[in-house]
Amino acid sequence: MVSRLLPSVIVAQFCRSILKGIEDHMSGRNANPVPEKDGLRPNSGRKQLKQRMKSAVGAVLRGVIPALLSVASFAAGEPANGTNIFAPASTPAKMVTNLSVFVLVITGIIFVVVFTLLAYSIIKFRGRAVDDGREPAQVYGSTQIELAWTIIPVLIVVVLYLATARVIHAIQDAPEPMDAVQVTAIGHQYWWEFRYPKLGIVTANELHIPVSDPANPNPTFLTLFSADTDHSFWVPELAGKTDLIPNHPNRMWMDPHRTGIFVGQCAQYCGVQHAKMLLRVSVDSPEDFAAWVHGQQQSAVQDASVEAGRRVFESTACINCHAVAGTNANGRFGPDLTHLMSRATIASGAAPNTPEKLRLWIQDPNKIKPGSLMPAMQLSDADMDALVSYMETLR
Amino acid sequence: MSSNAITVPGLQIDEKPWVDILHEWVTTVDHKRLGVLYIGYALLFLVVGGIEAIVIRIQLMFPHNDFVSPQVFNRMFTMHGTTMIFFVAMPILFGFANYLVPLMIGARDMAFPRLNAFSFWLSALGGLLLYFSLVGANGLYGAGNAPDVGWWAYAPLTARAFSPGHSSDYWTLSLLSSGFGSIGTAINIIATILCMRCPGMKLSRMPLLVWLNLVMSGMVLITITPLSAAQIMLLVDRYLGGHFFDAQAGGSAVLWMHFFWIFGHPEVYVLIIPCFAFMSEIIPVFSRKPIFGYPVMVAATVCIGFVSMSVWAHHMFTVGMNSYANSFFTITTMAVGVPTGIKIFNWLGTMWGGKIQFKTPMLFSIGFLFQFLIAGLTGIMMACAPFDWQLGSSYFVVAHFHYVIVGGILFALFAAFYYWYPKITGRMMSETLGKWHFWLFLIAFHLTFDLMHIPGLLGMPRRIYTYEPGRGWGTLNLLVSIGAFIQAIAILLFVANLIISYFKGDKAGNDPWDAWTLEWATNSPPPAYNFASIPVVASRRPLWDLKHPEDPDSRYE
Questions:
Q1: pTM of this prediction?
Q2: What is the side-by-side strand order in the sheet with A191-196?
Q3: Higher confidence at residue A126 or residue A75?
Q4: What is the predicted ipTM?
Q5: Cβ proximity of A387 and A379 under 8 Å
Q6: Which of A59, A274, B8, B356 counts the most CB atoms within 10 A of its CB?
Q7: B338 touches chain A (CB under 8 A)
Q8: Which domains does chain B have, with CATH numbers?
Q9: Per-residue model confidence as pLDDT tens digits over A328-367
Q10: CB contact under 8 A, B471 and A264
């Protein structure tokens, strides 16, 4: 069934990406209509044609590359799930993608030209079976040719550099608006801490940010720290990666244009469990974001029915590392658990947040994430039941 | 020694007990034997590093695979990288330089034969120290038994807080030791080239291989020094309470990155320039034409040597440098592409109008040209800092540098093996096995490393021991692994060819390729003294002059 559907899915995806590329381009051009007074500008017809051809090439390439990638991932039998660098959903990622396509086109042209020359000379000048036995003409070089293949690459480099420098400046030196959402992200060995200093929120592993309307941007600015080794924040569809380095604060920003869950992971080797230091960014509508903020600002729910579990939590080593706001648990080595149940995953995305996985995680973290710094708690069954019930109330 | 040096070495070996032979090899100061020792030692580590690569690829075949634990996987990629760079690529290239440079400049040995032996054994000690960590690194901590900090060992992962036990110490000491060996050899190569050339061999008449090894050696002197300094600083941090890289106490993790990459990037050119050297000797001979634009080739190499010293921080685009630094390292990195492109064009010019003979060395050289072109273009993509914010530390980078190291350096090395094996052993390598080796390796190489770019574009970071299903990485990784296994088979074919041809290969004679440089003027294998009488040269291709007295090169230079 699936295999029969697959080809049509691939073709559909392919066409959709190409069409989308063309569509994007058309709408971009319509915003800047070319004056129609042909009589006044004798060259405008040719210029227009040139421009149209250029934009057609751009549109096809802009469509073809993501399309090829989606074909590749479909051919791989798995749907791509939101980490494709050619499917940007935020301004910095889009700027990078546009520049990337430009660089790909230039390098692609160089590749085709040099490949053709090499292939041609190898085929054309191959030694023949029937040979006169004489050496070919001994040529030692040519100054003109050397000059040509020095100057042309220099010009290409200048063009590429200018295009690149613009984007570097536009992304890195973007001013931070007064009302931007501020987040402090702190990398820990194998999990992420997120603090919202203006909103008084502390959470872990799942970042919530508001969607940003391109016409009226509401970007999020991140300040990046590390508590131990180097890490790197990488959610490919939202922005390029930026490292989190101890003693070296960094900054990055993003302004997602659509709501949804965006995934990524730590991209700088940070130790044993580098692989399972996953990232989830939930881009919320303004209303959802406000509701989430309100929920996170509350103290932990106090539920008398799970008093036993709370006692287990507060009388064992849990509180050395974990905090629950409004109680005497204020450890800082592990994720804040005040609103644990508001998160979809545990162990920095390594497992879904279900009672069974939570129990397994507390009992023996190595079963889910070998090398995690959380110790196995070795609790009795009764204590474990109570503890998990308590955790379940931390909404 | 001098009395029996006249006899043919092959016969001489057969008559002696093995202890004497071993003693001769261990105590030798002959540049040819040291060259062979370097190459043999590197081939041994090539197999070890290859096995590590296979373990990595088995683990990554499927999402959530548990063939090895994360700890073992991290040690595997650390050891694979360190081994392949420091104990395969470096020594094998030094081996060829050792063997070929004196022969090509008409000298009887290196300038400092004892330093040569000392350098080799220091490098060998480095490799042994690295692998001794498997036994000795545990310490009192039960802390694991091989380095697991990645081959660039970013601080603060190497601090004692994060790397207890002695595994990082073995890594540090092994690099220090082999680094000192490399510096010794570089000094030796420079001194040999500057002082030992035969009469008539002006700098402008040296074969390109010699020129390029001169540039490479100069770069080794400049780049290994900061690496060694950084290793000593790291040891000070770990044992004497220093705070160079210890971020908790105010040190700088970024400082280590600068130290490492100001070594690390020129190192790529240290490895690729000798491979350019092989290309510049092999392509002309099999195209039956002199190298196109000799002075430009020399200038381009020197230019690469200088410019490549100013590109290191393109490994650090994601570290958070300001926009001016990122722009600077973008332009320098792109600029290095210009002289590199000039080289490719000159090889193209060399083939143009020639009569190309598709012997195995030439096949590998042609493979090199195409693959190095692609590796260079993906390099331009990553030189573009914003593009690198997406591509850096992803599988795209892994694919890119394997394209350089396997598609470029290893292909050039295979070409060099097939080309100079007759000189070193006196026997030809099998062309049939060679062609099987070439085609199998070529197909497997492209299966592995072409596809490996795509998971990077789809967001797969490097150095992860496993990955989540459902991101479109699974099948691609499976195919990449299959390619890696086929590459391993092709390498076995190559090793088999090396061994079989040593015993059964056709006799090579002095000059099997009808070549033009001085090493082909002496016996195969060359006697201990290289040349019975020191040659005198009048052009860049002394053997061409000899074979074509009616039309010698010396008339045009």
A1: 0.89
A2: A201-204, A191-196, A181-188, A220-226, A250-254
A3: A126
A4: 0.91
A5: yes
A6: A274
A7: yes
A8: 4-555 (1.20.210.10)
A9: 999 999 999 999 999 999 999 999 999 999 999 999 999 9
A10: no
